[in-house]
Amino acid sequence: MTFSWGILMVRTRRLLDLLDDLARYRIFSDIGWLYIAITIAAGAAMIWLMLDETYLVLSGTLAFRCAIGAAPVAQCHANNVVTVSGPAITSYLLLPGINRYIPVLYGIIGIVVAVVVHEGTHGVIARRLKLPVISTGLLFFLFVPIGAFVEMDEGLIQKLRARDSGRILAGGPGSNVVVAAAALILMILLLGGLVPVYSGALVTQYSASSPASELHSEGHLQAGDLITAVNGTQVYSGQSLTNFMSGTVPNETLLVSIGQQGAINTYPITLSANPYNESIGFIGVTIGSQDLSSIRDTYATAYIHDPLLYIVLPGLVSQGETVIPFSDTLHSDYTSPVLGGSWYPLALTLFWIFFINVCIAFFNAIPLYPLDGGQALLGWLSHSGRKRVEARAKLLTTICSVVMLALILASVLLPTILSLIPY
């Protein structure tokens, strides 16, 4: 056991027999080829994403820069452009409790699963290819488990043929992608079986100085709530609410039933005049175009039409609160016929296992030494069959690593730097 800078490292040889038992199965050598393809694709995707993000920030208009916090606030205000503060550095760190978007419990579960799978696959493929493993172990941050590791001799890995070292090194990112895909499939199946607790018109926002804003100030109405009935008339959708409101007049008092946090409560509300037609009553709410069933179906089938929806973190953007069934805003509006309310923590667990495995896989696939992608690049260059390349393998890997590091720093720091420079 060693302890340094808050990190406790526990090494053991007791798990080596488990690695050897798993290494008996041929699939762990054959699947290494699939993992190589996954790692190459993930590394290429990361390079493209970093280059594209840097280009968009540098070439973006003033309005775009202001919207992402990459322009001076004074200049944005002078041009009547809405500005936001740049993202905090901690939002780029995959650390629960430090990154405010990652919940501590589910984040720790996701990290432990991802790192155990990542390191364990390295070890199993290494043993399958007869490479010795020195030890296995666990990592703790202030006695909180944050991962695992498999200790191998990196020098021996680099001496292997590129085809063998590549399979070992690609095992980590590749297995993370497989686990992420499995967690995502299970999450989609779980969400697809949800049923709405009640039906109604989904409130996405409310107007200032309106009857709805008064309900909000009293804690009776929030974005994500549902208007389920008006004066006892059932509301099934935004259109049915619009149809009902067309027969109302200003200053009329209605009894509005609102579904919130799994309960339905009814409140009196006095209508104001509709700003578009003053002869019609006005509540002051904006109704979403989808009901709870269509929101569920859209998310469950997003892999067909919008797969990037799955990497939107709950709470990261306000729009996500009304399109993600397990968001803080919507989760109480659904239940599971089989699991009841316990579907919600299970969905969060599967989501964070999926998300964190994807992050660890794609980051480690970057050709940046000492990440898996960088070590694989060094091994390939060292055994390329070209003497000039092999003699300069370390130099070429170092150059590539410096370029990759520059791209990472540009992605993280460029908005902050540009916020100090006039457009």
What does this structure look like?
With 423 residues, the protein is an alpha+beta fold. It has two domains: 2-190 and 355-418, no CATH class; 201-292, Pdz3 Domain. Helix content is 49%, strand content 17%. The protein contains 15 helices and 14 strands. The strands form four sheets. Strands 6, 7, 8, 9, 10 and 13 form a six-stranded antiparallel β-sheet that branches. Helix 2 (27-59) crosses helix 7 (162-192).
Number of DSSP helices?
15
Q: Estimate the mean pLDDT confidence.
A: 85
* SSE class: alpha+beta
Shape: elongated
How far is the N terminus from the C terminus?
53 Å
Helix fraction by DSSP (H/I, runs of at least 4): 40-55%
Radius of gyration: 27 Å
Order of helices and strands: EEHHHHHEEHHEEHEEHEEEEEHHEHHHH
Percentage of residues in strands? 15-25%
Given as residue ranges, the uncertain stretches (5+ residues, pLDDT < 50) are: none
Main pleated-sheet profile: 6 strands, antiparallel
- Strand element count: 14
- Return the domain count: 2
Topology of this structure?
Blueprint lengths: L1 E3 L2 E6 L3 H8 L3 H33 L2 H6 L5 H6 L25 H25 L4 E9 L2 E9 L1 H6 L2 H31 L2 E2 L4 E6 L4 H7 L8 E5 L2 E2 L3 H8 L7 E8 L2 E8 L1 E3 L2 E6 L2 E3 L4 H9 L1 H4 L28 E2 L7 H22 L7 H11 L4 H5 L1 H26 L5
Antiparallel strand pairs: 1-2, 2-3, 3-4, 5-14, 6-7, 6-13, 7-8, 7-9, 9-10, 11-12
Helix pairs in contact: 1-5, 2-7, 2-12, 2-15, 5-7, 5-12, 7-10, 7-12, 7-13, 13-15
